[in-house]
Design brief:
Layout lengths: L1 H21 L3 E5 L4 E6 H59 L3 H6 L9 E5 L5 E5 L2
Antiparallel strand pairs: 1-2, 3-4
């Protein structure tokens, strides 16, 4: 990998040197609101190329980050919708279980509070008396 990077760096340096040597005429640069001093055309080409590469990389990173955020938002929205569906289904199951008849209702046909249980009370004379609950 390092060797490949070294080769690419060498090729870009050789290309830049070739541009400077092939385009050695002096040109003036008009920046609309100001005038830059005259410089070598090859050097101007290299500066413009480097500036374009830097701006392109920055824009690509920005666009990639925006797209990555959009993908993350859509993934989270899908997960949120899935969890909402699970919550709705769980609430339906809970409601069914809460409103379902109990075993005592199914067997006896009455609720547990209406069944006749015996309770033990202590009187003043400390004797135990059984009363039926109503």
């Amino acid at each position: 990998m390092r060797f490949l990077l070294f080769v690419l760096l060498f090729l870009s340096f050789a290309y830049s040197l070739g541009l400077v040597l092939a385009n050695n005429t002096e040109v003036g640069v008009n920046l609309l609101f100001s005038q830059a001093p005259t410089m070598n055309l090859g050097l101007l080409l290299i500066l413009c190329l480097i500036l374009g590469i830097i701006i392109g990389i920055l824009l690509a990173l920005l666009i990639f980050r925006v797209l990555q955020n959009k993908w993350e938002i859509s993934r989270l929205n899908k997960a949120n919708n899935h969890l909402q569906e699970q919550l709705t289904q769980a609430n339906v199951v809970i409601d069914r279980q809460a409103n379902a008849p109990t075993v005592e209702d199914a067997v006896y046909g009455t609720t547990a509070t209406q069944t006749q249980d015996t309770a033990v009370n202590i009187d003043e004379g400390s004797t135990l008396i059984k009363h039926k609950r109503e």
